[in-house]
Amino acid sequence: MPQDDTKTLIEEHDVIMIGAGPSALAAAVYTTREDIGTVLLEKGVVGGLAAITDQVDNYPGFPEGITGLHLAEQLEKQAERFGADIRYGEVTEITTHSDDHTVLVKTIDDTTYKAKAVLIATGSDYRKIGVPGEEEYYGRGVHYCATCDGAFYRDKKLVVVGGGNSAVQEALFLTRFTTHIDLLVRSTVKASEVLQHELQKAVDNGKITIHLDTKTDEIVGEDNKVVKVKATKAGKPVEIETDGAFIFVGLIPNTQFLKNSDVKLDEVGFIITDQNLHTNMHGVFASGDVRSGATMQIASAVGEGATAALKMREFLEDPSRS
């Protein structure tokens, strides 16, 4: 939607990147190395979900693995080394300037940035299960990040909800602290073969009990803390006493700020791009986990960031080619 130009433009830059996760940081390495002025706007944690992932074992170049925090820090340092300007700010609106068709990016503090090209790399967030008690006890017994909060449950019992890679990986991590974990799986465990092998070892050691065909119904709390989880297992109600619940049931794209923009989204809310990672909005690109068809892997997000940077450079050289 065209901009009415009644706003005062505060800053002008070659490229604005929304988000500062692995995809945007990789893109910024490429743009800034070519002296393309680049500002990254991040509303949360630099490094995104990668920064709060305990261990990354499938990122090329690290045969012993690397912690997500360390990987994020290294990406950030590399981008800043070449001149990337990383700022904290939440974007609320993206529009097109009516005169020159550049992109206007507005943040929650009413700052407006004018950019020749924009990269959206806002990633994804944890999906909620939407049961009673989940919201009420968030941070007081309900969690979505084992690395962040697992240590609070040393010598405690936990419930983990989910059966995919993230749920199994995080449950295994939590066994470092807990006495026992009940893993509630709605249907069957769908984690990779490697993770399922590690999970079975934890089951054999008595660290984890798997509950298949189990639907989580309610998280119950008393005295400002979680005390049990109510569920339906194979059609029958069950109650599991616990000191906390960690939920890992997938990701949702961070695209809520685009609801009033012209950027096209798929049926789930991920951004649709062409083969050049260009959205339908002139000068606006997308990469990483926020893009429709993304593989949700750090390595591919970094690769897409590099590709997006190269495509933006081509766009800056000739905006009419896209």
Any overview of this molecule?
The chain is α/β, with parallel strands linked by helices and 322 residues long. 22% of the residues lie in helices and 29% in strands. The chain has helices at 22-33, 68-81, 146-149, 165-174, 193-204, 298-317; strands spanning 2-3, 11-18, 38-42, 85-88, 91-97, 103-107, 112-120, 124-126, 142-143, 157-161, 180-184, 208-211, 214-222, 225-233, 236-241, 245-247, 251-253, 284-286. Strands 1, 2, 3, 4, 5, 6, 7 and 18 form an eight-stranded mixed sheet that branches. Strands 9-16-10-11-12 form a five-stranded parallel sheet. A three-stranded antiparallel sheet has the order 13-14-15, with no helix packed on it. Helix 4 packs parallel to helix 5 (193-204). The longest helix has 20 residues, at 298-317. The protein is elongated, with a radius of gyration of 22 Å. The two termini are 18 Å apart. The mean pLDDT is 92.
